[in-house]
Amino acid sequence: MIEIEHLSFRYPGSGAGFALPALRIERSAKVAIIGPSGAGKTTLLKLIAGILTPDAGTVRVDGVTVSALNDSARRNFRISRIGFVFQELELLDYLSVYDNIVHPYRINRVLKLDRQVRGRARELAEHTGLGDKLTALPRELSQGERQRTAVCRALLSEPALVLADEATGNLDPPSKLRIIELLIRATERNRATLLAVTHDHELLPLFDRIIDIRQPRNPPTE
C-alpha cells in the first residue's frame, strides 16, 4: 500500500527537515507512528498524502507514485483515495455537523454528492453518536464530538488509506478508545490501511505494527 524510498524533505527557510531511507506498509495494516515532538511524524503523513512534496526520493501509495504527480493530480488522488483526520480537525465554524462531513463532496469535482453518499454520511453520524447533532455547529459540540465529526468526514469516501494525525488528542481515555476503535472498525470493514500518529501509548496494543521515530531526522544539505 505504501512504499517510500530515500525520502528527504526540508521546510523552506528553516533548518527543520525529515529523512527516511525506506518504509513499506502493507495493505489493510493498522499502523501507529510514535515519537517525540519534532521527529517528523506529521510531516511524514503530509508527504504520504501529497500535501507536501519531497526534495528527493519517492512516495508510492496503492501503486501510484504520488511524489511524481503535479499539484492537481496529487490533490485529486488525495481527495478520492485518502481520508485525512487533521490534528487541527479543520472543521468550518459556520457549517453544521452534517455539512462539515459532506463538505469535501461540495468543493471537489472528483467527488459526487448523491443520495448514497448522503445516506452514508447520516449512517456514519449515527454510528459515532452524532445522529442528534447533525444540525449543530462545531462551537456547540464537545471536543470528542468535534473529533468524531472530523473522523466521519475522513471516512465518508470509503478511502483505501486513512491517515490520522493525533486523532485522540485532548480527549479523556474513554473518548480516545472510542475514536481509535471507530477508525479501526471502519478501515477493517473497507479493507483499508490505517496510519495513525499518536502519543497515547496505552492505545498501541490495538495496532498491528508500531513505527517509532525516536529522533528528529534532518535531510542532507546537498
Automatic annotation (TrEMBL):
Domain ABC transporter: 2-221
Xref: SMART domains: AAA
Keywords: ATP-binding, Nucleotide-binding, Transport
SUPFAM superfamilies listed in its UniProt record: P-loop containing nucleoside triphosphate hydrolases
GO molecular function: ATP binding
Record-linked InterPro entries: AAA+_ATPase, ABC_transporter-like_ATP-bd, ABC_transpr_LolD-like, MacB-like_ATP-bd, P-loop_NTPase
Name of this chain's protein: ABC transporter ATP-binding protein
